[in-house]
């Protein structure tokens, strides 16, 4: 008789991974949001040793993957990357556990955790509006703005500046394109932008959440996300929203921070994460339906004190 093991039959290992309530709860959370161990401990109200032990099991079976950021590992479950059989097992497990009271409690604490992060970011911008231009130029230099604008053509376009901040890029774009729509969630930033853009009759400023951009479908020729994604909890959703507002043939342009290990910098800047690898951005842009994606790592400027940046562009099929 041949002895059956989890090594000879992966199905048994996958089923064993799901045969635990704590691991089900972990995967439900990680399917929604990339989280570190401390996030999970707070949300699930479990000790670190317990959470780490279960994450080790799930990682070994490829239910979730970890990415190192500074001193932390960020964990995420990506449904589309699961083995087809694993995906079937998970969808069944998810359906059969929808009514668990513990999952509802986890959802509430996850929402509170994300709201707290968002509040930290908003507090940073509320206190930085007056110094934002000088601060970001000291950290990142000036070239990235002009390089992003080069990608925006031609002069009759309507361009959305998403996360427009104090309107610095809006003011430059207004000189070269037909209409600029600036969106930002921070009242302090928008107040500064309105002061800067006085006299521009082709600029419209709106307050709004980039996860639900207050712009009509297929109404813009181009959209720009400059140093925005690192402040967001759901960057993939924002890229999908960006694609939604673009006309067929429209272009999305992203400039942001390459992955780094400066945790103090992230905290100082009120950012949600420590940048991105270009392959992560490419996957999010592809998932949003953008094509002809191009990514470039920008060389650091001599006087820039912050991490290096990247430029990414993608088109909406015409």
* Biggest beta-sheet profile: 7 strands, mixed
CATH class of the largest domain, named: Alpha Beta
CATH superfamily grouping of the largest domain = Vaccinia Virus protein VP39
CA-CA gap between termini: 61 Å
Measured as a percent range, the helix fraction is 40-55%
Find the count of extended strands (DSSP E, 2+ residues): 10
pLDDT under 50 segments (min length 5)?
A: 1-8
Give a brief rundown of this model.
This protein is of the alpha/beta class.
Write the topology of this structure.
Elements lengths: L9 H9 L2 H12 L2 E2 H8 L3 H13 L4 E5 L2 E5 L7 H13 L4 H28 L3 H9 L2 H8 L7 E5 L5 H6 L5 E6 L2 H10 L6 E5 L12 E7 L8 H11 E12 L5 H7 L8 H11 L2 E8 L10 E7 L3
Parallel strand pairs: 4-5, 4-7, 5-6, 7-8
Antiparallel strand pairs: 1-3, 2-3, 8-10, 9-10
